[in-house]
Write a structure and sequence with these properties.
Layout lengths: L1 H9 L20 E12 L14 E6 L2 E3 L6 H6 L32 E3 L2 E4 L3 E9 L8 E5 L4 E8 L18 E2 L1 E4 L3 E9 L3 E7 L2 H5 L3 E6 L20
Parallel strand pairs: 1-6, 3-4, 5-13
Antiparallel strand pairs: 1-2, 6-11, 7-10, 7-12, 8-9, 8-11, 12-13
Length: 240
């Protein structure tokens, strides 16, 4: 009941959307993504005792990918063109295995592990649907995006309906945020303009879920103008 009351409240929030504080909501979408977010399981490492179901260890994932932190900084690898062995640009744009996300969980709750990113050309307009899965426990996930603000254009409970739900999107005066709660047993839709070149994390703000892998990253490529390009690291940048 509490998530429904919270959603009823937050769905009434609006931007000022006036001349001084405009709401520049992207009206045209270049790339559309659907991300499932939630908890799953990994195989338990040898010689360890794990507390997950059937002796597994808890994991968290986005589109069934539990993010593995590399030993080389993602921004460094991108800037110097040395992504090989650090990350791959093949993060899935849709759920790999569709199922009833808010109904009975699948028999297999195992998630994959990898360092996969989404690559976007400069000035791409993005629409992202984040769908809670509620596989292992019913929890809302506060998702935070680095590098950008976004507009929360829609939210609801149950499985996102790509035919019906977009007709109710608010493209006039939605709230502008950098963090939004994906409701337990529900979904949220955001739009943003990818006009900030670099590598930007998106992660759950529940620290334990982030440590379990509920995170991913976007690579925004340089634009054509000098002001649209990623700056090089400063000469006095300390080395780790």
């Amino acid at each position: 009941m509490i998530p429904h009351l919270l959603l009823n409240f937050t769905s009434k929030l609006r931007s000022l959307a006036n001349a001084q504080f405009p709401a520049n909501v992207p009206q045209k979408v270049d790339r559309q993504f659907i991300f499932t977010v939630g908890l799953g399981t990994h195989s338990c490492p040898q010689n360890q005792t794990c507390q997950g179901p059937n002796g597994t260890m808890f994991a968290a994932s986005v589109n069934n990918v539990s993010f593995a932190m590399p030993t080389t900084a993602l921004l460094q690898a991108h800037h110097f063109g040395q992504s090989k062995g650090v990350y791959t640009p093949d993060f899935p744009i849709n759920p790999l295995i569709p199922f009833n996300y808010t109904g009975n969980p699948p028999n297999n709750t195992m998630v994959s592990n990898g360092t996969k990113l989404v690559v976007l050309p400069f000035n791409t307009t993005v629409e992202l649907i984040m769908q809670d899965t509620s596989i292992l426990g019913a929890e809302s996930h506060p998702l935070h995006l680095h590098g950008f603000n976004f507009f929360v254009v829609g939210q609801g409970f149950g499985n996102f309906d790509p035919t019906k739900d977009p007709t109710n999107f608010n493209l006039i005066d939605p709230i502008e945020r950098n963090t939004v709660g994906v409701p337990s047993g529900g979904w949220v839709a955001i739009r943003f303009l990818a006009d900030n070149p670099g590598v930007w994390f998106m992660h759950c703000h529940l620290e334990v879920h982030t440590s379990w892998g509920l995170k991913m990253a976007w690579v925004v490529l340089d634009g054509k103008l000098p002001s649209q390009k990623l700056l090089p690291p400063p000469a006095d940048l300390p080395k780790c």
